């Protein structure tokens, strides 16, 4: 029955502390060391990724191949010759100039969209009216010499740009020089695309023929030009008077 009272069995060393449990717990010093090691590994991995990213950015330039080396601290670095550094600087300057040009184009386009009365792409070709006493021009209606132009109605001018990104117009016409604006018959191209047309006639005999696949666009241009040029149903009579 053991050494205890009757009915109670005493097992020696049953409640003594276990040494194995104490040995299995991690020491504070070991945990700090592991955290520091993991942090260093993450830091080195982050630095390596940043270096690789910078190298990939450099590869966007004309440098054929990047040379890699190691610094005194063991960190990897890109090694460039003096010629490569100068080439890189020149390309950076060129990119900055291109960025300035694009910025100017955006500002110009923003100004057009803000202040222009009307602007859109139109297909345009030019013709000269016959002067008094000259024979009528040859019928060249079938000649496909339409050219796309970005046309802007702003202030007292019509501006013709090669594209909406151009800073300077290719041509311009004073609204006060326009003596006639009217619609032209629509036509269908070989690709079965229908274009709606109108013309602009100046006092100098220059005639702009304009077309667009949108009838709404064409009607908008005709209406806006007639209003801004103060042209009515008697525009034909005004034109005859001026030309004589």
TrEMBL record:
Pfam families: PH. Residues 16-31 have a biased composition (Low complexity). SUPFAM superfamilies: PH domain-like. Residues 116-232 form the PH domain. Residues 16-36 are annotated as: Disordered. CDD domains: PH. PANTHER family: OS05G0595500 PROTEIN. This is PH domain-containing protein.
């Amino acid at each position: 029955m053991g050494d205890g009272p009757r009915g109670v069995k005493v097992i020696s060393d049953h409640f003594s502390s276990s040494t194995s449990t104490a040995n299995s717990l991690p020491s504070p010093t070991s945990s700090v060391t592991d955290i520091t090691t993991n942090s260093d590994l993450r830091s080195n991995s982050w630095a390596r990724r940043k270096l690789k990213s910078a190298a990939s950015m450099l590869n966007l330039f004309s440098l054929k191949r990047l040379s890699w080396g190691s610094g005194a601290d063991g960190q990897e670095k890109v090694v460039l010759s003096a010629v490569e550094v100068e080439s890189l600087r020149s390309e950076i300057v060129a990119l900055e100039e291109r960025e300035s040009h694009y910025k100017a184009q955006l500002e110009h386009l923003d100004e057009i969209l803000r202040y222009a009365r009307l602007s859109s792409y139109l297909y345009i070709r030019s013709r000269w009216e016959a002067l008094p006493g000259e024979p009528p021009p040859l019928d060249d209606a079938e000649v496909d010499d339409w050219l796309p132009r970005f046309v802007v109605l702003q202030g007292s001018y019509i501006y013709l740009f090669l594209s909406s990104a151009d800073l300077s117009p290719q041509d311009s016409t004073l609204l006060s020089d326009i003596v006639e604006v009217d619609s032209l018959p629509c036509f269908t191209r070989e690709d079965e695309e229908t274009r709606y047309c109108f013309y602009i006639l100046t006092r100098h005999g220059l005639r702009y023929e304009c077309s667009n696949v949108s009838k709404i666009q064409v009607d908008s241009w005709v209406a806006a030009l007639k209003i801004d040029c103060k042209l009515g149903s008697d525009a034909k009579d005004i034109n005859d008077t001026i030309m004589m």
